Amino acid sequence: MAPDRENDVHETVEGATDTSAVDILLHALRKTPPETPGQVLDRIAEAHAIGSIQYITAIVQAISDRTECGLAFKPHILTLEVCERLLEAISRTDANNLNMRIDSDVLVQLYRISRDRHWNIDSKVLESTAIYLANSSFFAVLRAIDLVNCVQDGSKGNGNSIWRFRISDLEAQEVSISDIRERSKTVLSPQQQAELSSILLEDPLDTAVDIAKVIVDRSFAVDRPFYMFMLRALCMRDRAVDADWLFDLAKQDFNRHTGTEYASMMSMYYRQGEDAIANALFDEFVGLWSKKWKDISNATVMPDAVSFQAEKWRQQHTLHIQSPNLIDVGELERLCRRASGPFYRNALELIRQGQIDQAMQALNKSKYEHHVTLVSRQLRVLVHALIARGCIDQACSLYTVFQHGLNTRGGNNVCAADVVFGENPSGYVTGVLLRELGSINDWDRIWSIVDSDADLTFADEYIEVVKFLVERALDTRNRTQAIRCAQLAARIAKRHSLALEALSAEWINDVFSRATDLYSDSSDNQLVSLFSALLAELLQKSPEAQSQIYSQWNARTIQRSLNVARQALDPETREKLHSAIYATVDQAGVLESYSISKVLIDESIQLFATLPANLTSVPTTPDAVLGSDGWSGNTAEIRFGRGNSKFWECTVRAFVHEKSVSSKLSSETACHLLKTLKLGFICGARIDNKLLDLANDCLIGAGYPAVDSRTGNLLPREKQEQKRAKYQESQHWEAASLAAEEKRQRGIIAVRLYHDNRATKLAMTDHSSSTAIAFNTPLPDKIKWYAARRKAGDIPVLAHLLHLVRDAMHQSSRTVWEPIVRDHMPEYLDRLGKQNSNSNAKSLSKRTKYAATIWSHAVFAYANLGEVEEAMVYYRRIVSEGGYPIAQSTAVLLALLSSSAVPLPTFPRGWDGPATRIYGLNPMYPPQVDLPSDTILVPKTAAERKTMVAQIGLTMLYAMFKHKIWPTAHFYGVLLSTVGHAGMISELRQIFEVVMPASMRAMPPELRINPAFMPSPIIWNMAIREAAKAGERTLAEYWFKEYRMSTMPLFREEASAYSRFTYRDKPKYARLFLLGRPYYMIPNLRRPLLEDGSEPSPWYDLGEVEVQLEMDRLRALDKLPMAHLDAVKMLTIYTTVDEHRNMESSELLADEINVLYLDKMVPRYSRARGAADLAVCWKLMVKGYLGAIAYLQQQVEHDIVAINRYKKRLAFWYRKWTDDVAKSRAHGDISGHHRMVLSKQDISLIESICSK
User: Fold this and answer.
1) How far apart are the C-alpha atoms of 859 and 617, rounded to whole Å?
2) pLDDT per residue over 837-848, tens digit each?
3) Residue 1071, CB half-sphere, CA atoms under 13 Å: how many?
4) Which helix (H) or strand (E) holds 67?
5) What is the pTM of this model?
6) What SS3 state is found at 162?
7) Which pLDDT belongs to residue 66?
8) Which residue has the higher pLDDT, 838 or 371?
9) What's the rounded Cα separation, in Å, for the pair 1008 and 1001?
10) What is the CA 1174 to chain-centroid distance, rounded?
11) With contact defined as beta carbons under 8 Å apart, do 499 and 458 qualify?
């Protein structure tokens, strides 16, 4: 970027920090237009980076002038490179839709200039340019159809969406331009016809065809979309000659085109009345597809790309074939869908000709014989065509048949010929069918279709159809179907958040008004339960029932329900319904709405009007008092609000809320409030004291006497005066505080405006005063930032606080992170709780997320420090907040509990709700104690402790699934180890074979490819090892075979998308060491100890040794490196097993061990950790040479040369062993001491041999 350009951008950023990147660049472009080709290229590079069509358009305008003859580019700016980059940038904005597009005339002019100047534009750029021009021509026709349909529908045109006018780009291909012009003559005004003509004149296809000829002359291999989009536009414009020429080129390679091109050609010839040519094209395609299908029909269909790669590797490795006959299910489905175009177009033509039976037969044949699969848009057009001809039965049959599939998941025993794919119809198609069936009152088929759509696909058309069905049922006075339709609307609204907005308040009020008429003639008591349930359900539909959007709807619904209650003939039923309505209102908590409060106040006024005057008379002077008897009246005359009714409390709360809205009650309203309190006390109503205090404030403010909350009587005059004085004082202080707050806010705004320009620079240089920090901000600056937030009294942003806590834990700064999690977090959560006390569940989850995120890291940190009691404190706090720790924290905590050195605490269950099976895992519960007050589990044996720890791990896994927390590979590894140590082999197998794959399939796509969540070679190694240790040899061998033939090849292919390695900073060879570990897990070389505890002779099992040698051979065949522990196991065989002693191989292995130890690029778990590990290896070499020398000396003829050579090597390895033992002891490393020490007998023997 040029220097002056940088200054412009920085100046803009400082002056307008809230503008977007596009606005900033546009401002700089207008201020400093490009004057040289280099500056234009810089601007084009910026356009590539932000992908803004608006910015590209501005660049074009800046380097060109609009003249009468068209667009004229400035000649000194437009060079070959600028022209090529502009063509590339504009053509890349083509998203194949009707969104804002750059005028195709720009590309036409650029191409003509390049042609006239004989510039050699890159063929790939020309290809994308031709596609852009072809789509521009095609979309011009769509805009014309949109204009005509818009006028016919009486709507205002909207070029941004053609679906709104019930026509798709697929349907548009069946409309000829001549038909558009004929229809326009009858429906369009002269001005609109002129607009239509200008739209249709936008036809840059001539330039696109010229570019196509240039590309063909260059023999450039274009991609498949080139033929598809070019032919679609040519056929749409009925340019048969050019279409035939390009189609012949496309047919030269069947793999470079699909049925889409044939379908476009067939549509053109069918429109032109050339049915014979179109049918010949269809027969030609069927022959080509049959030939292609014959090649793939016997291919084995693998479930996914991962299985496909694994099976391909296995066959090539075991059968030594180069091209295994395999295909993955996704690729097969794509092939079958791409071939559907001609079959769809042929069936559509048969339907239009009235040959319905032949069309249905052709469609069934295409699905079950030719194995092609219709796409949703094609199914939509066919259903439309059938309904237009009145064939509703065939439309329903087509809808049902094409939903079914066979063997769609593939498998090792499934070939392509066994697979039939189904189609999931769109919500639009479902809606069209439901509307037609509703029109003829075919309710059985309606509910059959609804029941088959288990996911309740949400679409605007579907919701509109459900509303139509409700109205249809009410119009026909079908009580049963009206209830089912209302329940369907409620189900959709519950499943989809946008559905409730589609079910508008006006429509719901209208529907319930009509429903009231429908149910009014019912003589049973179902009316009470029906409307109470509907009211409770509808009031709780919205996640924010108090919002203004739904308040009017709730108020009208309550008003309607109260009217129904008032019209009930039976007094008992009327009172019961009245109480149920107020109980529902109180439970829903919707009285904060002004409109609902108004409805309840009006209802009370109407009810009080039916009572005698002596019951409703109240004093109106502020100092009025009553006698010692208080209020008097006959409760038998009051037929509402008796017993435990919520009528009185809801009504008083409504008056109080009206006062909060209007700041003061009117005299008339205050009088009604006093009547409510009087009648409520007469009926013995229970009203909260705090609510009564608020009601008294309302009365005093309106000049009415206050009520005693204990007796219900009016207060004495003295207390009335005291309460009035206290009220006036509070009002004075409230007004003063409001004025002070207003003054403070104005001061804050003035300061912010004054320092606005300095704020950005300050934030860039001083982290202590910034409101945000990044993960790579130095820890001291993070601490300064946090101190500033504490001083300001702010609640830190969760992401920023997490950066600080993580960094402090990573750098072992306990004095930094411990006060935060121990002292500050309760304060933050308490303040979050106060902020969210009256908010919805979404806001409450913010507090839970805040607690779980920070305290999860506290669990992690304390578990790493071995402080299990502190870790459990925060574990329990997270659970009490309704959350659950992250998987990494639970993994570290579970690993800590596996150690017998720490006490075993009790664990909360960690989840609420029903105990259901999740991902194949049954509900698991933690081990319980005898007394509720106990906090420590006391296992009687080591085996019982292992079982308890395994139960805790399984409970953690189930709780994670309940809280939608995905377990990491680390957690699964710890859990498998824990379950295996407990001997719970059935649980181990279920987790490894059922739970892990099921949860992986349910993960979001971005997590499936995250190495932290993907099953690693360590997990396979853990499962194989634990199965072998538990005595399940057959299971371990089965898993090893599956690992070697299916999973290991994917790990091994480092360049593939399925690599599970986490060591991304290591070179490729260093990442492969873990892959060989499962090859050494199954054989157990040592024989069991004798009854007296001594070691048998020989110490090894020869059969197991030979198995291990074979598995080592397989590892070498698979070209996998050997990790340190595996090399030690093989070194043990080559040096101490008499039948297989091989000192030459031992020397090679020893050299590999030494080189591996020195290679710091290899992960530390795959090489020796220090001198002690090396001493163990050199000890084996010493014992191996001792055994080899003893064997040679026992022979009849001594090989003196070999014996002397072995003695020299013995002395060499003995010196190395001595040096490394000394180093390990000097460093205090006594791990594996017994394994690296030679016996005194061996040492004396070595010294005697070496001295000779």
Assistant:
1) 66
2) 444 444 457 888
3) 18
4) strand 64-67
5) 0.52
6) coil
7) 72
8) 371
9) 8
10) 49
11) yes
